[in-house]
Amino acid sequence: MSAEVWHHLGMGIVAGLDSSSESTRIVVCDADTGAVLRQGWAPHPSSSPEGDPQAWLISLGEAATGGLLEGVQAIGVSAQQHGLLTLDAGGVLVRPALLGNDKRVQSAAADLTDALGGRTAWAEAVGSVPQAGQAVAKLRWLARNEPESAARVAAVLQPHDWLVWQLLGRPARRTTDRGDASGTGFWSAATGEWRPDLVELALGRQAALPDVLAPAEPAGHTPEGLLISAGTGETMAAAFGLGVGLGDAVISLGASGSVFAVHHSALADSTGTITSFADATGMHLPVVHTSNAVRVLRGTAELLGTDLPGLSELALHSSPGSYGLVMLPYLEGERTPHLPHTAGTLAGLRRESMKREHLARAAFEGMLCGLTDALDVLRGRGVEVRRIFLLGAAAELPAVQAIAPSLFGAQVVVPQPADYAALGAARQAAWSLGVQQGTLSPQQPPLWPAAASQVFDPAGEDAAVGHAVRQQYATVREQTHPGAFNAS
After folding, report:
1. pLDDT of 11
2. CA angle centred on 227, ends 226 and 229, rounded to 5°
3. What do you get for the CA distance between the two ends of the chain, in Å?
4. Any bridge partners for residue 232, and if so which?
5. C-alpha angle 433/10/65, rounded to 5°?
6. How many CA atoms lie within 13 A of 394 on its CB side?
């Protein structure tokens, strides 16, 4: 059915644009039902740790060819988080964008932590402790390493902010949303306010910050009259696209891991273990990171001369508890608990446990127990977790699906692979469009169908089994690193 016919039937058409570190993905959806009508994709050039934002615009244009946006009435923008774009007084980029994976910034983050009085002072100020990915640490790095560039900085944006500004024709007003703002290190999710004093602390001078829009508030209209919604960061857009709500947590299995949940308020955490993000709906996304997730599985697979599917098959030939073999998966140090300089541990070696299948299962149990430790940090602060969405290619491994429900103690949902960040951006565009048309409330987003997924419930006897495995793991963790987890 053509776009014109859809429009004639009164069914608005919206688009979600996700500009990640690797590519631009666009989904065009029916605003009422969320049905995907068309999709587009184009790569980004390799750009680590710096990038040319103009390349993002070129990629956007390539992804939108062939009439992809025909009939679209509103666009939402999601983009990679933790990028920093610095503008001079004329709105011209001072230098290439500093991106989220820039490890040069680590010392600047530590320097900033001390400059405000330590981890507790930062956690109370903005709900997070400076990290290399955050814009505040990048500003500090810029001031220390490129003072001439720093002196020209008049305004700062993140990637989604800059793309929205470009789509709107570079108006005088620049905007962001509370979700992306909460990742900068100079906006508080608890107060909903910028901390320009922290920008000055990092950069050595003031810089203009974008207006923070409400979830359903539009950023504006293009010169052609196309509505552009507030936009948000990729994490927040993906959560919105998945349709998570109160009682839901999301565990992302990358090389490292992250655990976040939907909560009704920001969580101040004096240790900095919890980072208080805001979401794209008016709620909050407290997140806890682990340094080790799938890298544990890959390392073990290489050791055993197999791949991840082979490791999964081996693990399922062992039994819960891996015959007493316990792996503390701290291969790259660890963030939760805070053990940045430690190494992994393999405990419980006995003749009967020295088999390939037991080591394989110990790797899965160790990785998942480490993520459960992170989940327990949130549970310990009153965050309700009834259902856990498991993301990443490793979530498809049978061993993960078999072991995770009992260790997490909750229903595990493995969504079908999809462009959830782009879908979340499209859903936000539909919300903003509906508010403008008077068909939706600013407090109630459109009710799109839940993501297609597999669901794994812990069996009745699994609770006791999972508790025993976790207890075995916790005993080794405490013996090896006494008090470390409590200190997190």
Report:
1. 56
2. 145
3. 55
4. 78
5. 70
6. 25
pLDDT of residue 8: 38
Q: What mean pLDDT comes out for the span 235-239?
A: 96
Alpha-carbon distance 351 to 354, whole Å? 5
Q: Are residues 63 and 125 in the same domain?
A: yes
| Dihedral over Cα of 421, 423, 426, 431: its sign | negative
Question: How high is the pLDDT of residue 271?
Answer: 83
Please determine, for residue 488, whether its predicted confidence score (pLDDT) is greater than 80.
Answer: no
pLDDT at 1: 38
Question: 67 and 35, same structural domain?
Answer: yes
Q: Which domain holds residue 359?
A: 235-415+458-488
Q: How far is CA 282 from CA 192, 209, 266, 285, in A?
A: 10, 20, 11, 10
Contact 129, 272 (CB under 8 A): yes
Within this chain, do residues 471 and 330 fall inside the same structural domain, yes or no?
yes
Q: Please write the tens of the pLDDT for every residue from 186-198.
A: 999 999 999 999 9
Let me know: does 328 contact 292? Beta carbons within 8 Å: no
| 270 and 402 both lie in a single domain | yes
Q: Quick one: 315 and 265 in the same domain?
A: yes
CATH number at residue 369: 3.30.420.40
Q: In this structure, what token pair is assigned to residue 143?
A: 């001031």
Tens digit of pLDDT for each residue in 443-481? 999 999 988 999 999 876 678 999 999 999 999 999 999
Q: Which residues contact 34 (CB under 8 A, 6 or more apart)?
A: 423, 426, 427, 430, 446, 448, 449
By CB atoms closer than 10 A (0-12, 13-18, 19+), residue 423 is: buried
Q: How far is CA 176 from the centre of its chain?
A: 17
User: What percent of the chain clears pLDDT 70, i.e. is strictly above it?
Assistant: 97
State how many domains the chain has. Answer: 2
